[in-house]
Amino acid sequence: MAIDKTVGGEGEAMRQIWITKAGAPDVLQIKDAPEPVPGAGEVRIRVEASGVNFADIMGRIGLYPDLPPMPVVPGYEVSGRVDALGSGVDAEWLGRDVIALTRFGGYSDVISVALDQVFPRPPALSAMEAAALPVNYFTAWQLIVVMGGLKRGETVLIHSAGGGVGIAATQIAKHIGATIIGTASAAKHDELRAIGVEHLIDYRTENFETRARAITGGRGVELILDPVGGESLKKGYRLLAPTGRLGIFGMSSAATGKQRNVVGLVRALASTPWLQFNPVGLMNANKGVFGVNLGHMWNEVDRIRGWADQILDLAAQGVLKPRIARTFSFDEAAAAHHYVQDRRNIGKVLLVP
pTM for the full model? Predict the structure, then answer.
């Protein structure tokens, strides 16, 4: 990964990781920039860790429609310590350890963030664990509690159970008292079983629809969390029991390589069961389909903060505890993206300045 040492402007310099153009992980580039000055209602955070999410990877490939025009600094979440305040911010925030949601720009070692997107870090969480919490746990909470309505005794199928959202969803579902089925490569099964996934399916060698139906005695499942899209949605929809819900939060099947592949995208879209997801079909089947994109919830400040209160309380109790798969330095950002795309992680991948 190239390093650009050019500094614009005056004052202290910070480092950022930029997506310079659509492409493989090597398009990521470190650049220096002047440290930001927090504006009104903002705090400046000296970052200790930044979360890596699949949305960052889809953006780098050129398949994420919400990404601002390139070149751009990706990143949705950080943890760190507040070292400067904008006007209107109470002095008590200075020096506080915090977690923050960032709408891009999180791959930075210093960042200014609006105070309503900042949360005090529970003492029970390390800085690394805190950076692994916002995107994954807020997404899982929206999928399972808010929209999925999962209840004790119901069965949930979690695709990509070894990923950050998968781990978060497992912990939340276990707390609720649901039965958990997870899909993951066989190499991850022992570790996932140890954290509460009762039934595991190797998606590479097994048909998850057939196996999950056998596990449930033919009934099917009440909730499915699907970040895969395409053909996976067809199987999942068929697998739903009466009153079952299919939660969609990604389309990783469109990312068939480490660069943009139009053929893969077209195939994923073509295999989506659009005709099944119609009002008459849904009514007759007594099934529900919903979508989640935390990146489109930025204006729902009170709602997000309400979820955060519950999630951080459970984290403080030790009920929810992010699992760190691996940390990478900023210089290793390309390797971090390779690591996630190669599906080697069990838990969260972080960038550490």
Answer: 0.93
